[in-house]
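Appendix B. Raw example, untouched.
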Amino acid sequence: MSNISFTAMPTADAEALWNGDADSYGHLPETMISDGPGHPCRHCLANIDAGEPLLVFAYRPFPDLQPYAETGPIFLHKTPCQRYAAEEIMPPVIAGGKDFIVRGYSDNNRIVYGTGAVTPTADIPAYAEELLNREGIAYVHVRSARNNCYQCRIDKA
């Protein structure tokens, strides 16, 4: 059994956007049509297929504004989808990728310096577990190594 869990964007956040709420910058999400892989939905953690409509918007996966509360563009299926539930298994958007930045955060939502590393996909579970076993690390983010976009969160199982 895995000691970590991959956590998707909360359903409440996705539902707010599906229902017409503004993003983290106070703007309405933009609608695009996916041209294929490269548009990972942060709610179901699967790629949005070519031809499907999607929302692109600014997302801040932190509870409060503060200097380390990174905000950036992410994608969401335009039509509601089921939240990723197989938390002990690496999600499709991660498993199908090349490399990611894996970084630890403290319980006050600050980056723990020295934890961020470009990590090959196969090494993500082991590195995340190593980080989560360190004192002072409450959770881990997986971000794109190329664009720094938020992918998902990893917590202790």
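End of appendix B.
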